[in-house]
Amino acid sequence: MARPRTFDEERALDAAVWAFWVKGYEATSTQDLCSATGLGRSSIYNTFSSKRELFTRALARYMDVMTAGQVAVLEQVERSAMERLRALFDVVIDGEFERRVEGRSVGCLTVNTTVEIAGRDPEIAELLARDLERRLASFRGVIEAGQRAGEISTARDADSLAPFINAVIGGMRVSAQGGADRAVLESVADTALVALSGVGSPSRVD
Amino acid sequence: MARPRTFDEERALDAAVWAFWVKGYEATSTQDLCSATGLGRSSIYNTFSSKRELFTRALARYMDVMTAGQVAVLEQVERSAMERLRALFDVVIDGEFERRVEGRSVGCLTVNTTVEIAGRDPEIAELLARDLERRLASFRGVIEAGQRAGEISTARDADSLAPFINAVIGGMRVSAQGGADRAVLESVADTALVALSGVGSPSRVD
DNA sequence: CGCGTTTTAGATAGATCAGTACAGAAACCG
DNA sequence: CGGTTTCTGTACTGATCTATCTAAAACGCG
Fold first, then answer.
1. Rounded CA–C1' distance between A147 and D14, in angstroms
2. Phi and psi, residue B101, nearest 5°
3. Which residues of B touch A164 (CB under 8 A)?
4. Which nucleotides of strand D lie within 7 A of protein CB?
């Protein structure tokens, strides 16, 4: 029983998430993390052990929050499957245009981490894989519902279509980081939905 | 006049491309570049001025080679537009499974660079943007040909569909880095082609 | 065979990196 | 209010980073 912390661990973690999100793992120094969180080095190392450990906690927190948000959108049973998928894409697109630094999207920490370090760090790759599976399961659920309701083509099963949705979202995030504007991303989303419905005309309502 | 170089500049550049491709810009040290190229520090700095300069030259070379390869596939006029697009996807997928380190794809240097540094380096972002425009132009050409031939839906114009193809390819590369197997990537490609044709059934011939 | 020029190798510079040591401040309990 | 424990700011460590400096080596040419 002694002196309590003067900072909130979750707030510090959120600040670290943002720092890693914007600059990536390698380019973010421990000094950057001190500045971002407002903590001293001692507090950071006392609380999070190492830069890598802090990163894995930040990544885990990011994935929890973001994936939970996406899953929540996909579980709005009062909407049709197609509406839910469109809502998912809208959430993704809105995110890309809300979270920008110097006029450019910071993308998605999951995608950024997959690209930057999944290939060299099996433990982080495993964290990413678990999150991916969670998202794919959610995608599959909506797709199956859409197929039962006749909204989504049954030419391909949900196991095949879920990775397609995931790939399109990842591609949209990379495109946003590359400078794509909103109309382009919306068009990509529309086209992807066409592929799912299996009919030749998009159905976005403006 | 004076002492000639004992190394080939392009070979050194290719080695640097691979080093940056595998580890990314930040994580690749100048020592890594010396090891990869077989050159001493003096030779590298004498020839390429700085790490960043070497990176921009490596990236430019990568983009030249890769984009030229993709454009060549898309300009095989003896094949139909859909066949050319399928061939493009096949080239992408084959690449993801040919270029691996420790069982994982190294992805695409263009995508990796967009994610890692486009947001913080306008000059590199500009290089990437120019390469993107070159690829999009090639995509548009094939799409328009496909639309004239009745293979590709005219519900959306080529300006809209080209970024879709780009996004799907980017998403496939990220998926590959995340551990997706070949069947998954082929399925994603098939589904994307369905979206272009605007009909409900894929046409892969095994 | 030197002379001028360029490349090369290796040592070095100075900054920055992740991480630690330590001392004192702050808060709780009795 | 004293003892104890935890926290926190600062100084520091050794490694590594990018980049440069120095001097020897290697070539073409007169």
1. 61
2. -135, 125
3. 187-188, 191-192
4. 4-11, 16-23, 25-29
Size of interface A-B (CB pairs under 8 A): 176
Residues 65-124 of B with CB under 8 A from A: 101-102, 104-107, 111-112, 114-116, 118-120
* Residue carrying structure tokens 């030779």: B43
Q: How many residues does chain B have?
A: 206
Assess whether A31 (CB) lies less than 7 A from strand C.
Answer: yes
Q: Tell me the per-residue pLDDT of B126-168, one tens digit each, with 9 for 90 and over.
A: 999 999 999 999 999 999 999 999 999 999 999 999 999 999 9
Let me know: does B74 contact B139? Beta carbons within 8 Å. Answer: yes
User: What's B151's DSSP letter?
Assistant: S
A51 touches strand C (CB under 7 A): yes
Helix (H, G, I), strand (E, B) or coil at A108: coil
Domains of chain B: residue spans and CATH: 58-197 (1.10.357.10)
Q: Tell me how many degrees the CA angle B53-A118-B193 measures, rounded to the nearest 5.
A: 90
**CB distance A120 to B180 below 8 Å:** no
Q: What is the pLDDT of residues B181-203, one digit of tens each?
A: 999 999 999 999 999 987 544 33
State the pLDDT at residue A1.
Answer: 62
The pLDDT of residue A198 is 77
User: Kindly report the CA angle at A163 between A91 and A168, in degrees rounded to 5?
Assistant: 45
Contact residues, chain A, for B198 at CB < 8 Å: 194, 199-201
Pairwise CA distance, residues B65 & B59, whole Å: 10
Any idea of the CA torsion for A54, A57, A62, A63, to the nearest 10 degrees?
A: 140
A117-151 pLDDT, tens digit per residue, is: 999 999 999 999 999 999 999 999 999 999 999 99
The span from the CA of B173 to the CA of A170, in Å, is 9
